[in-house]
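User: Before I run my own analysis I want an independent prediction to cross-check against. Here's the chain; please return only the structure tokens and, at the end, one sentence I can use as a sanity check.
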Amino acid sequence: MRHPGNSLQTTSARSPLVTNSRSSDAPGDLVPTWTRRELLARSGVGFGLLGLSSLLAQESPAAASADPMAPRQPHFAPRAKHVIFLFMNGGPSHVDTFDPKPALKTHEGQPGKGGKYMPSPFRFARHGQSGIEMSELFPHLATCADELCVLRSMHTTTPNHEPGLLMMNSGAQQPIRPCLGSWLTYGLGTENQNLPGFVVLCPGKPVVGPALWGNSFLPGVYQGTHINNSKVDPDSVIGHVRNRHVGPDSQRRLLDAMQALNRRHLEQRERDEQLEARIQSLEIAYRMQFEAREAFDMSRETQATRDQYGPGEFAAGCLVARRLVERGVRMVQVYYGNGQPWDAHGDIMDHKRDAGKSDQAIAALIKDLKQRGLLDQTLIVWGGEFGRTPTAQGSKGRNHHHTGFSMWLCGGGVKRGLVHGATDELGVDAVENRMDVHDLHATILHLLGLDHTKLTYRYSGRDFRLTDVHGHVVTDILA
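Assistant: Structure tokens:
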């Protein structure tokens, strides 16, 4: 694995020099099975283990460090420090939100790919000095038009939810790759050791579930911490890690003793990532009892601020996301809702419901971050796993659509008041400045100071990366 300062090896094969064969000198007894680490520890009064430790430190400062989540230097100067990904699971329609297609009215009822063309029932208008067009679904967000970088030429590989969700989150269609948040915390660590580096706020789960915020073959400490934000209060969020019967000092002594035993056990093993992850998880859980309680306590916000974000679980998620990045969390992902709420097969007017529940909170998040001086260092990403067809499904719905759809970015080093790329006149295919998911991921990593071709991890005999063998940084949208 090649990485800014890291080169972790995840293989844990035992030495071929030690076996479980029977000794001819002691029939019936088994020869002990030793790992390479154990063999070196028992050879030369343990001096071989010192050499192994030195080698591991050279290959992997993060592995040798007491805290793999400690902040690390990026490849180059970053434009952003944090990411908030507002995920509209289900797939919002581009032709009903950020990509107006008046030609659909002209072709209404004519056969197209997958059905008959259907114009949007929502009015579009230009907003801000930039004149970015968006539909009436987002009146609050329209007041932030000059902060947005709208990507109208996104495309992906599949129109199905499961592989689409996995692709947007992990750069692969199968649930065997680490997600974006795991790669970011692996590459950069996090600024606050008392909170997880990667937090996922989702009231329930999308159709794929935890694989969307999973670490896969990366060390377990980089997995996203899922918080069910259907009810955000300190007791519901961290109640399971808070000890109500033992005081902090006693907990610390107990944890220190247990961690010492864990580390002694770890030293006797060649490499045990599950045990390493457990050691780190216990430390984070202990520290979270204190700082996480404050971070998730929205009663500490003024009533004016809470009113600005509005009611509902998604609004609460947006407000908590601001509080978390304000406290140094590297990435927060806020899923709009449980299941696939933007999946408007039966009636595209369902988008009015979903936009209505999210529009105010999104605009409030942008304005709040800007007012606090955090927008320049926080990249906001908005979008779903794909878009929806310009044609009708049934009489009023729209089906999944992956060959052209819209997302937008805001803050964190991207140009403001910009529309990048375009689909054809009917919104079927991305045709101008086409941008696939790998390009998006490469650009996000670049904005945080990471070269996507160098952020790699060696696993099962090869170097893996978020963008696989694809992806280009879209320099046209960089500020």
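Sanity check: Confidence is low (pLDDT under 50) at residues 1-65.
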